[in-house]
Design brief:
The complex is a heterodimer.
Chain A: H1 3-32, H2 40-58, H3 61-85, H4 90-109, E1 123-124, H5 134-139, E2 140-141, H6 143-161, H7 163-173, H8 175-180, H9 185-211, H10 223-233, H11 238-252, H12 254-261, H13 269-288, H14 291-297
Antiparallel strand pairs in A: 1-2
Chain B: E1 2-7, H1 13-37, H2 42-51, H3 57-82, H4 90-107, H5 116-142, H6 146-166, H7 201-218, H8 220-230, H9 232-237, H10 242-265, H11 280-290, H12 295-318, H13 325-340, H14 342-345, E2 346-351
Helix pairs in contact in B: 1-2, 1-13, 2-12, 3-7, 3-8, 3-10, 3-11, 3-12, 4-5, 4-6, 4-10, 4-11, 5-6, 5-10, 7-8, 7-10, 7-12, 11-12, 11-13, 12-13
Classes of the chains: A mainly alpha, B mainly alpha.
Amino acid sequence: MDLSFFTSILFATIVAGTPLIIVALGELVTEKSGVLNLGAEGTMSVGAVAAFAVAHHTGNPALGILAGMAAGMLMSLIFAFSALTLVANQVASGLALSIFGIGLAAFVGKPYESVALASVVPLKIPLLHRIPVIGPAFFEQQALVYFSWVMLAAVAWFLYRSRAGLILRAVGESPVAAHSIGYKVVRIRYQAVLFGGAMAGIGGAFLSVFYTPMWVEGMVAGRGWIALALVVFATWRPLRVMVGAYLFGGCMVTQMFVQGSGMKINIPAQFLSALPYAATVLVLVLISRNRGTIRLNSPASLGQPFLPDA
Amino acid sequence: MWLRFEPRAEPSRLMRYLSPIIAVALMLASGMVLFMLLGKSPMEGFKVFFLNPLKDSYGVAELFLKATPLMLCAVGLAVGFRANVWNIGAEGQLLVGALAGGWLALHFEGSNSPLLLPGMIVAGALGGMLWASIPALLRTRFNANEILTSLMLVYIAELMVSWLVHGPWKDPDGFNFPQTKLFTAKALLPVLMPGTRVNAALFIAIAALIAGWVFMNRSFMGYQMKVAGQAEHASRYAGFSAKRSVWLGMLVGGGMAGIAGISEVAGPIGQITEHISPGYGFAAMIVAFVGRLSPVGIFFASLLMALLYMGGEQAQQYLNLPYSISKVFQGMLLFFLLGSDVFINFRVRLLRRINK
C-alpha cells in the first residue's frame, strides 16, 4: 500500500467522522443536562436541507451552515417545548422529532433533489499541511473539520473547567438539588437542548454542503442515530467521542478501501454499507455489557422529566 | 400572567381519550395553514387530502389495505410499549418477515399446496421474531439499549433486501430490475372484494387486535407487563421478570411486523422489491400512541394513518406537492398528541404575577 493511498484513506475517515463528532458533542451536552433527545436524525435532516437550500440560493456555503444551525435550533425548540415545558415523555418526543424532521426534510427538499452545489475549496493550514503523509489528511480540510476540533476542546473545557458547565452537570445529576439551590433547571435544559440542536443542524449542513454536496432524501442515513450511540460509546466523555467518531468514519469508508487496495475479493456493496450499523450494535454491546460503567458515567437524571414546584 | 401546570390528583380519564381527538383537530388545523403557506386553497387542500381518497368503494378498500400492516405492527408494538420496551425497529422486522415468507414463495414457486400461504405467514412471523430477538438478547444479556440496536437493524435489513433483489434473488427474466420473480397464485393472499386490492391479511390483523386485547386485558402476563411499564419498582418487588417482559414485548412486536411484511409482499406487491414498505413500521409507532396502546384505539388510528398515506398520494397527483407531505402530517400528529397528553396528568392554572 503506497503512502498517498494511506493519506487518502485517512482524509476520507476524518471527513466521514466530522459530522459524527459535531452531532455527538451537541447530544453529549444535552444529555449531560439530563435530557435524552432522540431527535438528532430528524434535526440533522432538516439542517441538511436548510443549509443546502440557502447555500444554493445565495451561493455562499457559510450562510448555508448558519441556516443549518438555525434550522437545527428551531427543531430542537419543538422538542424542548414538548419534553421540558409540557413534560411529555422524552423518548416519545425525540422519536416524534425524528419522524417529523425526516418527513419535513423530504418535503422541503424535493425541489432541490436534482441540483448540485459547487464543491468548496478546502482550507489549508499554513506549514502544517506540508507534513508528509498526515499533513494533507489533517490540515487540508474543510473549515468545519477544524471547527469540530475546536468544539471538542470547547465542550471539554466547558463541562469540566467552567462554572456554567459544573451547573449544567449538576442539573443532569440531580435536578431537584440544583433547583433547590436556585438554579433554573428548565432554562438550563432548554439551553443545552438548543446547543444540541444547533450542533445537529451544523452536522447535517456539513453533509449536504460539503460532504456530498447535494441533497437526496434519506441522505443522513442513520448518522444521527449513530451519533447517539457514540455518546454511549464515549461514556459521556468528549475526547472519546472523537475517537469513536473516527472509528465509525473508518467503517464508512471501507468501500473506498476495498476498491483502492485492488483486493480481488468480491464483497457486495451492501455488506460494506452495513458495516457502520453493525459496528454500532457491536460497540453498544461492548460498552453496555458492564452495567456499572453505564450507571457510573451516565447523567443520573437522564430521560427523567422535571417539573419545578411540583 | 403565567401559565402553571398543576398535577392532578388522578390522571384524567376523559383527557386520555379526548387527547387524540384534540391532536387530530390540531393536525387538521395546521394542515390547512400549511396548504395556505404553500399557496393552495386550504379548503381545496383539505378536500383533496382527506376526502378525495374515500370518494368511492375502491378508495375505501385501499384504506383498509393500507391500514392492515399498520394494525399488525402497531398492536405488536403496543404490547412492548406498555412495558416500556422501546422496539423502534418494526420496519426492519417487517422486511425480514417479508424475506422469510418470500423465500418460501420463491422456493416453492408454482406449488399448488394449500399449505404454502399459511407456511409463508408463519415464516414471516418467525422472520420478524428472529430479527426482534437480536435487540431482545442484547438488551437482556448485555444491557444494550434496545432503541438504538433495533433501529440499526432496520438499516441492516434494508441493505439485506437490497442485496438480495440486486443479487441472488433477482428475477433472471426481469430486465435487470432489482426485484424477484412474481409470486405464483397459491403464494398470494386472496383478495376480499373483486376489483380492489384489499386482501385476507385484514382478517389476520383484526384477529391480532382481538388477541391483543385479550392478552393485554385478560391475561396475567399482560397485567405483569402493564405493571412493569407503569411502576417498575412495584413490578420488581412483586417478582415479575423484567427479562420476560423484554423478550415478550420484542417477540410479539417482531412477529406481528413480520406478518405485516407478508401482507405486503403476498398482497399488493406480489414479489420482493426494494420498496416493500413506505415506512409502515415507523408510522405504526404513531398509530400505537394515538391509539392509546389499546387495540380498539389502534384500529381507528390505523385507518387515520392509512388516510394520511392516501392523502399524500392525492396531494402529489392533484396539488403537485411531494408525497412526503403525508410524513409531515404524521409527525405533526404525534407531536400534537404528546402535547395534548399533558392535560391527562396536569391542569393548567393561570397565575397572576404579584406586583412587588
